[in-house]
Design brief:
It is built from ten helices and six strands; from the N terminus they run αααββββααααββααα. With about 500 residues, the chain is of the alpha+beta class. Helix 4 packs antiparallel against helix 7 (about 305-325). Helix content is about 60%, strand content about 10%. The radius of gyration is 39 Å and the shape is elongated. A hairpin with a 5-residue loop joins strand 2 (about 125-130) and strand 3. The strands form two sheets. Strands 1-4-5-6 form a four-stranded antiparallel beta sheet, with helices on one face. Strands 2-3 form a two-stranded antiparallel sheet.
Length: about 500
């Protein structure tokens, strides 16, 4: 009974220490996270006149590209999500962050190790002489040979989280994992935006090519008419030369579009993970529609943008690492236990006389390190300050981008209205000059000038439409991607309430 009580006593002490550690671990060393203060405006500067778009016209959050009403664009976006290699890199990075967080969580549990070994050792058989204190000598001879040892043991080790070091590490790794998830969302949104912009610009080029093809056909008819009039002696050779120049110049512009379109098509192919030689997009009639983008409050922007979310999670991770660094000032407590069998013979290896065991706590504490821990704490605090500054700068940049694209869309809409009026006037001028030329009151130079002016205004209006489409994509990306119409219905644009 006494022997049993003696052997149980270390175990009882270890359990008491473990319970004490768990109680002490209720509070963690280091500062608790507080979101950095950031000035948020009540409304966007250039949002005046905006109204909430009709929820029936909006896609669910995520599939924002469906706002453009183009099935081909939607198909390409699905292919990008599956096959884009840049996105695959971000997915792999997120998986690494998940694994790191799982590893930090495992630190809260004991580790169990099983070891088995066989050892062979040898010793020489020489003699040695030892002089005693009375002056006499004793000679001993060793017995040489090879001995064997068999060991089998099971060990358990558990670090008690007295000061919250492990919890702070888990907090840091979890925040880093969430930051990685936000980085993945930001990378996906960026690639989706790039694909949409390339596709929309390609469709604008197709529209310009259709315009140039129709113009070339009209110029070809005008050249044929002018040549017939020249042969009839009605016009001069100069008129034929001007008509030819106008035709060839327009044909050259159409040829130039082929190169620009090929570049955009190749860029789209790479985005969807296909070699450019194996990818092509057929021309289609019409342009994707220009979507209506709903108004959002600046405070909502901080919740929606993945890059802002990532920056804040990095602040959380850096804040937790301060606690990890400070915990090094305090002693660590670990409990260990081991037991097994050890024998010099395989035959009676696993028997009661050959068993052994050990159990006990271990305290470890750094008494002097010449300022090493202090420097590590200073590094952690400086890294935290850096992430706070990065977060605040990211927020400022997000506001700037949203403001930029809002004012750009507003200005482009006004400019397109004026440009449409200019095009209408150019078409009317061309009609009048053409009639005057047929009546013989003006020369062909006036016709050529009016044709060039009308074509230039047509292309300018198409270019403006392309710029507006691109700006709408950039604004949607700056606002954090898609949105949920049901949540938008609950938002009062005159208040700062978040959905």
């Amino acid at each position: 009974m006494t022997a049993f009580a003696t052997s149980v006593k270390p175990l009882r002490h270890a359990v008491v220490l473990a319970l004490a550690g768990l109680l002490l671990g209720g509070c963690a060393i280091g500062p608790d996270y507080q979101r950095p203060e950031q000035s948020v405006p009540a409304q966007f500067k250039h949002a005046e006149g905006w109204t909430l778009a009709s929820p029936a016209d909006l896609a669910q959050r995520g599939d924002w590209w469906t706002l453009y009403g183009d099935a081909t664009l939607s198909d390409l976006q699905q292919r990008l999500d599956v096959s884009n290699q840049t996105l695959a890199q971000s997915v792999a990075q997120y998986r690494q962050a998940q694994a790191l967080a799982r590893g930090a969580r495992s630190s809260f549990f004991p580790s169990v190790n099983l070891n088995t070994s066989k050892t062979r050792s040898g010793q020489g058989g020489g003699s040695s002489t030892v002089r005693l204190s009375d002056g006499s000598t004793v000679t001993s001879s060793g017995s040489g040979g090879i001995s064997k040892s068999y060991d089998a043991s099971l060990g358990v080790n558990w670090e008690i989280d007295l000061w919250g070091k492990l919890r702070r590490q888990l907090e840091s790794d979890t925040a880093s994992m969430e930051a990685s998830a936000a980085d993945l969302a930001a990378a996906r949104l960026s690639l989706q935006s790039e694909l949409a912009q390339n596709y929309l610009q390609l469709r604008v080029l197709d529209a310009q090519k259709r315009l140039l093809d129709a113009t070339i056909a009209a110029y070809q008819r005008a050249l044929t008419l002018t040549e017939n009039q020249y042969r009839a002696g009605i016009v001069t050779r100069a008129d034929v030369a001007q008509a030819t120049t106008q035709l060839k110049s327009t044909q050259a512009q159409a040829i130039d579009l082929r190169y620009q379109r090929a570049q955009l098509e190749n860029a789209i192919a790479v985005l969807v993970g296909v070699p450019p030689a194996e990818f092509s997009l057929a021309e289609v009639d019409g342009l994707p529609r220009l979507p209506s983008v709903p108004a959002l409050l600046p405070s909502q922007l901080l919740e929606r943008r993945p890059d802002v979310a990532s920056a804040e999670r990095n602040v959380m991770a850096a804040n937790a690492r301060i606690g990890v660094a400070k915990a090094a000032w305090f002693p660590s407590l670990s409990l260990s236990a081991a037991g097994g069998y050890r024998s010099g013979s395989l035959q009676d290896w696993i028997t009661t006389p050959n068993r052994f065991w050990s159990i006990g706590p271990e305290f470890a504490m750094t008494l002097f390190d010449a300022g090493l821990i202090r420097s590590q704490v200073d590094q952690a605090e400086a890294a935290y300050d850096q992430t706070v500054a990065t977060y605040r700068q990211t927020v400022l940049d997000s506001f700037r981008e949203a403001e930029d694209y809002m004012v750009q869309l507003d200005v482009l809409e006004e400019e397109s209205g004026v440009q449409q009026e200019a095009l209408d006037a150019a078409r009317e001028a061309l009609r009048l000059v053409t009639n005057q030329y047929r009546a013989g009151t003006v020369d062909y130079t006036s016709v050529v000038t009016s044709q060039a002016t009308a074509l230039s205004n047509e292309r300018t209006l198409l270019t403006l439409m392309g710029t507006r489409l691109t700006a709408s994509v950039q604004l949607i990306a700056a606002l954090g991607g898609g949105w949920d119409p049901e949540r938008l219905e609950q938002v009062d644009p005159e208040s700062e309430e978040r959905p």
